[in-house]
């Protein structure tokens, strides 16, 4: 069995990455392989990295308020690259009223401040299982 591979990325101009780093470490502690792209990535860069790294899930973090534009664009870019089957989850400062819109645009799960890292791990494991991947 291979490890679940997760790409953690910070789209847009948001430079605050502490939460993304905490999640990345929690996923590593749970036995996953994590690729962290760093801050200020474009949706196109994120999608390209996800394909190149052959990841199972993409996790996005946004604190700048641009999540309604950036998160769906990552989903679109993955589709353009023929990788629309890679689930995308998001986290950060995302108002509850934006959750339905993001989910309608293809974001599989949304985590805000105070979310338990164990919940993030479980959602990722469930998403990979749903995809029927051998991990």
UniProtKB/TrEMBL annotation:
<dbReference type="InterPro" id="IPR036724">
    <property type="entry name" value="Cobalamin-bd_sf"/>
</dbReference>
<keyword id="KW-0413">Isomerase</keyword>
<feature type="domain" description="B12-binding">
    <location>
        <begin position="3"/>
        <end position="134"/>
    </location>
</feature>
<dbReference type="InterPro" id="IPR006158">
    <property type="entry name" value="Cobalamin-bd"/>
</dbReference>
<keyword id="KW-0170">Cobalt</keyword>
<dbReference type="GO" id="GO:0004494">
    <property type="term" value="F:methylmalonyl-CoA mutase activity"/>
</dbReference>
<dbReference type="InterPro" id="IPR006159">
    <property type="entry name" value="Acid_CoA_mut_C"/>
</dbReference>
<keyword id="KW-0846">Cobalamin</keyword>
<protein>
    <submittedName>
        <fullName>Methylmalonyl-CoA mutase C-terminal domain/subunit</fullName>
        <ecNumber>5.4.99.2</ecNumber>
    </submittedName>
</protein>
<keyword id="KW-0479">Metal-binding</keyword>
<dbReference type="Pfam" id="PF02310">
    <property type="entry name" value="B12-binding"/>
</dbReference>
């Amino acid at each position: 069995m291979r490890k679940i591979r997760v790409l953690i990325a910070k789209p847009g101009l948001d430079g605050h990455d502490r939460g993304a780093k905490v999640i990345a470490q929690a996923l590593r502690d749970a036995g996953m392989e994590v690729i962290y792209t760093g801050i200020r990535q474009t949706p196109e860069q994120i999608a390209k990295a996800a394909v190149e790294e052959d990841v199972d899930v993409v996790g996005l973090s946004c604190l700048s308020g641009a999540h309604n534009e950036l998160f769906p664009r990552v989903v679109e870019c993955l589709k353009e690259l023929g990788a629309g089957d890679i689930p995308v989850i998001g986290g950060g400062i995302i108002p509850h009223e934006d959750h339905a819109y993001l989910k309608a645009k293809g974001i599989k799960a949304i985590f805000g401040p105070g979310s338990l890292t164990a919940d993030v791990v479980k959602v990722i494991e469930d998403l990979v299982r749903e995809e029927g991947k051998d991990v």
